[in-house]
Write a structure and sequence with these properties.
The chain has six helices and 18 strands. Strands 1, 2, 5, 6, 15, 16, 17 and 18 form an eight-stranded antiparallel beta sheet that branches. Strands 9-8-7-14-13 form a five-stranded antiparallel beta sheet, with no helix packed on it. β10 and β11 form a beta hairpin. The radius of gyration is 29 Å and the shape is elongated.
């Protein structure tokens, strides 16, 4: 079993190493599921096979020691060499390959349960959600807000709330579902959403905005126009780059499902959101690859609702809840 366990750990290191250097795309949810199953098998084997065998061996050792001492005592010998407690401890000791598998099962199982059904951490990799979320923000996503989903396959089994306009959601990128994206829901099924000349409108009504002080981005070393936008019941901030044209180049638009529900022009785009789908955009609209480019977010792709920055090692002031 030690050889099998060693081979499994070697395979894990190869997988993690290849993922780290970019040789292949990793799937942490699948990896955690496999680790949970494998350690559970070892845990069962430990409790129902290996530990009873060690207990039986320790009992036999105690019986043999007792018989030996009784035999020597009958011959008048009272001083007997050997430390029974030390010998029993060695017999009962869990081997390394069980300590690093069965011993880790409770921890891995707890992490798997919390990550799959309660909260999942993510790191913000790009500036598409500035100023709400900054590069390097470590956020938590509420996995049960929209319902309970099966791990790995992300299939909804128990519904809860529906995504609403203004929600910040994490979802599987429709073009490549092995990648997670984060954007803000701006339109729900049945809505007609337009983004023309950098002005958002839902069902013909312009989404109200109020100008704020210009936003300075430390990474790009430039100022952007900043507005407060009220989307549904959510007040949040958005950025507008006055130097970017409002149109979307044809070469940048994916051939996505329900593409016929969108009309593109030199002013921007107008879309009718199909059932079971959502239209999502980044708060940094002129620097965001979102539904305008690759289409609608299917409801089955949604991972959860983002709600708090729990850490940013470059700026502790970033910690807190956000809209």
């Amino acid at each position: 079993m030690s050889l099998i366990t060693g081979a499994l750990y070697a395979a894990l290191l190869v997988y993690l190493g290849g993922w780290y250097v970019g040789q292949w795309q990793g799937n942490f949810a699948l990896l955690l599921f496999i680790l949970t199953v494998v350690t559970f098998v070892y845990w069962l084997a430990e409790h129902y096979k290996f530990k009873p065998e060690r207990d039986a061996a320790a009992a036999r050792l105690a019986e043999q020691d007792h018989a030996r001492r009784a035999q020597l005592a009958s011959q008048g010998i009272s001083q007997v060499d050997g430390n029974l407690a030390e010998a029993r401890a060695k017999v009962l000791a869990q081997p390394w390959w069980l300590d690093w598998t069965a011993g880790l099962f409770p921890v891995i199982c707890a992490v798997f349960f919390m990550r799959s059904f309660l909260f999942e951490p993510f790191k913000i990799p790009s500036g598409s959600m500035i100023p709400t979320l900054m590069v390097g923000d470590l956020i938590l996503v509420n996995k049960f807000h929209y319902g309970i989903r099966l791990p790995v396959i992300n299939k909804l089994v128990v519904g809860n709330h529906k995504p609403e306009r203004g929600d910040v959601i994490v979802f599987r990128y429709p073009v490549n579902t092995s990648i997670d994206y984060i954007k803000r829901v701006v339109a729900v099924p049945g809505d007609e959403v337009s983004y023309l000349n950098k002005q958002l409108a839902i069902n013909g009504k312009v989404v109200p905005t109020q100008p704020l002080a210009e936003f300075y981005d430390d990474d790009s070393l430039k100022y952007s126009l900043q507005f407060s936008e009220k989307l549904g019941a959510v007040d949040h901030r958005i950025l507008v780059d006055k130097d970017r044209p409002p149109y979307i180049p044809e070469s940048s638009i994916e051939d996505f499902p329900f593409r016929d529900q969108c009309r593109y022009s030199g002013e921007g785009v107008v879309c009718r959101v199909p059932e079971g789908h959502f239209f999502a955009m980044g708060d940094n609209g002129d620097n965001s690859q979102d539904s305008r480019f690759w289409g609608f977010v299917p409801e089955q792709n949604i991972v959860g609702r983002a709600f708090v920055v729990w850490m940013n090692f470059g700026n502790f002031k970033r910690i807190g809840f956000f809209n």
